[in-house]
Amino acid sequence: MSSQAKIKVRRLTAPDIAAHKGGQPLVCLTAYTTPMAQLLDGACDVLLVGDSLGMVLHGMPNTVGVTLEMMILHAQAVMRGSSQAMVVVDMPFGSYEGSYELAYENAARLMKESGAQAVKVESGPTVPETIAYLTARGVPVMGHVGLRPQAVLINGGFKAKGRTQGERDRILAEAHATADAGAFAVVVEGVAEALAREITQAISVPTIGIGASPACDGQILVSEDMLGLFDWSPKFVRRYADLRGDIQRAVQNYADDVRARRFPGDAETYFGKS
Ligand code: KIV
Fold it and tell me: Can you give the CATH number for the domain in which 120 is found?
């Protein structure tokens, strides 16, 4: 074999991610499509096929309407576009809360049909037992505490969590129960720094913050938010690009070219060099 033979890079796994506890912060972003996965793969430890895709790609008002079939389709696309990052897929609303068996059947479908290595569940009071059931049967699970987008209809909107002592105690207890049930990492969303730090110090697996301060073991953002695709994004999101402006300018330039008949390209250039 030549000395220049390609070194095969293996995909990160749940134990690799868990090993980041207290160490190098985890870099995580959402991905829903093959081209985006290709762009993010090399820089990220985790690509999350989040059910936020219902809002970001499909114009839904919240994540409640997202189906298992949508998650499978987008997870397949992300797997085709990545080879290094661990791919975690959100279990959508209604696919895991009903019974342990239902949760297992749907988690197994997500993993078998997409090839993704783990699922994420929003870890309300009843969910840690489901996490224990799944992990005991070979399904790596990421938890999600604090602001839980799938509870939006109960909560009456997307609201910061942990504002009262009672709520802080409950979120800390849920994070504990989630880690104790076998989750390999826990997303902590929409809580104040003091609570994020307390959770991070208290549990044995990495916390991944979103709108939860730098006190976590890693961070995750919705890629389209941090790339500036929308005219609005949550206050905690730093925009690293202005895709919205770039696309609007590009489309205007294209429209100007078409209208001015400045448009290059015919049968000869179609297959030739541009
Ligand atoms: O659905 C999602 O994208 C998420 C994260 C942003 C954590 O759950």
Answer: 3.20.20.60
Domain residue limits at 109: 14-242
Q: What would the pLDDT profile of 13-25 be if each residue is shown by its tens digit?
A: 999 999 999 999 9
Check pocket membership of 223 for ligand 1, CB cut-off 6 A: no
Give per-residue pLDDT as tens, 223-236. Answer: 999 999 999 999 99
Index of the ligand 1 atom closest to the CA of residue 222: 6
CA of 51 to the centre of ligand 1 (A): 6
Q: Are 37 and 31 in contact (CB under 8 A)?
A: yes
User: Looking at the 3D structure of the chain, how many domains does it have?
Assistant: 1
Rounded to an integer, what distance in angstroms lies between the CA atom of residue 84 and that of residue 94? 30
Q: Is 30 in the pocket of ligand 1 (CB under 6 A)?
A: yes
| 198 ligand 1 Cβ < 6 A | no
Burial bucket for residue 82 (CB in 10 Å: 0-12, 13-18, 19+): buried
Residue 9: pLDDT band (50, 70, 90) is confident
